[in-house]
Design brief:
Blueprint: E1 3-7, H1 14-23, E2 27-31, H2 34-39, E3 42-45, H3 51-60, H4 63-72, E4 77-80, H5 82-85, E5 88-93, E6 96-99, E7 104-110, E8 118-123, E9 141-146, E10 148-150, E11 165-170, E12 174-181, E13 184-187, H6 195-208
Parallel strand pairs: 1-2, 1-3, 3-4, 4-13, 5-7
Antiparallel strand pairs: 5-6, 7-10, 8-9, 11-12, 12-13
Length: 209
């Protein structure tokens, strides 16, 4: 059984994530202990609320360093919702610009839609060969709750490096819904709240650990 640490930094749907990861077949520990977070087979980074508050909480438990060290060693990390957003360079909310973890270039900005937040079920456009979405259909819906997202994918890839697999969704315009980039995976939607479809995705991640 693979060991998954859920990073507890004061932001995130910890209880639902814990249940969902157990359902996916993982042995789960909720922790802010850097040693446990660094050595687990997989690290899950949840997140809800404001970007600035999430980054402050993350730094308070050395979460940015933990994520960076795991990725430098090729050890899997998965971000969910704001836990995905903080992986990018920066977020802008209410005119406040906050530096993120900088694992990917890009800016988290307010959605350009008539109705915000984007709350409810929506389909996604997953790329061919996605391991994350294996076993799901094109019309499968996932549960979103967010007002901000990355709306442009800015990472340039050299010819000899495998390009990340980027999944898109639409709400008043296209935005990044998920990314698979080597050991770093992330979703803007909540797989732990997406029923059987979300359970398939989390099991797919656990199976890679």
């Amino acid at each position: 059984m693979k060991k998954v640490a859920i990073l507890d930094y004061g932001s995130g749907n910890i209880r639902s994530a814990h249940r969902a990861m157990e359902r996916a077949g993982a042995e789960v520990t909720v922790t802010a202990d850097p040693k446990i977070a660094l050595t687990a087979d997989g690290l899950l980074v949840p997140g809800v609320g404001a970007y600035e508050a999430c980054m402050a909480g993350l730094k308070s438990v050395q979460g940015d360093r933990i994520i960076g060290e795991r990725l430098a060693g090729g050890r899997p990390v998965m971000g969910i919702c704001v836990g995905m957003q903080i992986l990018f360079d920066k977020g802008i909310e209410f005119g406040v610009e906050t530096d993120g973890c900088g694992e990917w270039p890009g800016t988290v900005e307010r959605l350009q839609a008539e109705v915000v937040p984007h709350m409810g079920w929506n389909t996604v456009e997953a790329p061919q060969g996605s391991r994350l979405f294996a076993g799901t259909d094109a019309d499968t819906r996932f549960y979103f709750v967010h007002s901000y997202a990355v709306q442009q994918w800015e990472l340039d890839i050299a010819d000899h490096i495998r390009a990340p697999k980027v999944t898109w969704a639409d709400h008043g315009g296209r935005f990044v819904a998920a990314v698979e980039n080597g050991p770093l995976w992330a979703t803007q939607f909540h797989p732990e709240k997406s029923g059987d479809a979300g359970a398939i995705l989390l099991k797919n991640w656990v199976d890679t650990l």
